Amino acid sequence: MSPSTEAAPRCPFGHGAEAPAGHHGYQPFQMKDPFPAYAELRAEQPVMFDERIGYYVVTRYDDIKAVFDDWETFSSENAQAPVRERGPAARKIMEEGGFTAYSGLSARRPPEHTRIRSVVQKAFTPRRFKVLEPFIRQNVVDQLERMLANPERRGDIFRDLAYDVPTVTILTLIGADVAEVDKFKRWSDSRAAMTWGDLSDEEQIPHAHNLVEYWQECQRLVRVAHEEGGDNLTADLVKAQQDGAEISDHEIASVLYSMLFAGHETTTTLISNAVRVLLAHPEQWQQLVEDPKKIPAAIDEVLRYSGSIVGWRRKALKDAEVGGVKIPEGAGLLLLMGSANRDETRFTGGEEFDISRPNAREHLSFGYGIHYCLGNMLAKLQAKIALEEIVRLAPNLKLDNPEAIEFRENLSFRVPESVPVAWEA
Ligand code: HEM
């Protein structure tokens, strides 16, 4: 691979002094406010080799969409690869623990991807999760009422609502134990940190233990479905296999390994971001209080403006070109959808949050093409229910000290640590 070493032009946005030359203020793992750096990159160096992570960083909408669309040139096989190599201690723990998990779908290539996705898609229909709607709504109401009962009139939307609701939903869908929310959250945090984080060898050790436990649980769920059946997605996949669908037990466990992470982590973030961003724009929040029918459009605008995943990876399978820059065979690309979603060439006034934006749905937060997020409807359904109940039960919610909100360090997932709120009597 031959990264460009050309000095970057002087930066008109004023980042040049503190940022390493050529990076335009972009710090791959910093998530607090990456948007000024994204804007600089789009303007100055829309395809930039970043030697700190070893990836070509792509920031313009059209380039990113074209790469997603061309799966024959740009494969997703590196989408789940650890950004930082696993250290010897973590590798040993995982080997000895029988950790053989592989991506359920997102890092698989056709024809294997096509085969597994078609089996999963038949089981993961809106019918399977639509029946859960009253149950999801009740869970939202219970969590909210518990938060609103706090006599200090303060809460944290992340911890008090967004953490639990999507996790209970996906555990129910898959047939896992809903009393184990904290355990699944801990495992998921480990997965996010081990794959997309910047951990030292030492820091990886507890996470390696967690991944072993997590994978063992996925395999156990498949065994239980074989032995006992059940009315859940795991049992449906096992039944499909028994009826002749081409999917192995290891592949089913891998799908669970994916969904028990993707199925809540990103929705927790979506609900948190929806409340955080809408309350930061009180006049738009008020519009939803007065007319909740505007909520679905507002959710798409939240996904555009503040997506749960701001970067996703691809690998060039042959020599290629992106935005006029040569990409050598074997190179990794980091597609910054968080930047594409604010690209002025697609979204007029892209840096502004506007729930009446006509084309918000063109955001790339769910990816694009053959790997387009399988859970997008479930994620949006849950965010819609959460917002409907919050504007109904807590219309006068306010953000409490929003400047203090921190975001976890990560290459791809932009997750607020908390969304503190307060309300009047
Ligand atoms: C706000 C919530 C969510 C966001 C932002 C999100 C985002 C994404 C992204 C960026 C991809 C990769 C797309 C690509 O490579 O082109 C993806 C794939 C996927 N997502 Fe989601 N996701 C969300 C919720 C969910 C939920 C709730 C589920 C499951 C219940 C889910 C399951 C999956 C699966 C299985 C894939 C792999 C699809 C494939 O490779 O064919 N996601 N998602």
UniProtKB/TrEMBL annotation:
Cell membrane keyword on record: no
InterPro entries xref list: Cyt_P450, Cyt_P450_B, Cyt_P450_CS, Cyt_P450_sf
Alphabetic keyword roster: Heme, Iron, Metal-binding, Monooxygenase, Oxidoreductase
SUPFAM superfamilies: Cytochrome P450
PROSITE patterns linked to this entry: CYTOCHROME_P450 (PS00086)
Chain spans, region Disordered: 1-26
Protein name per Swiss-Prot or TrEMBL: Cytochrome P450
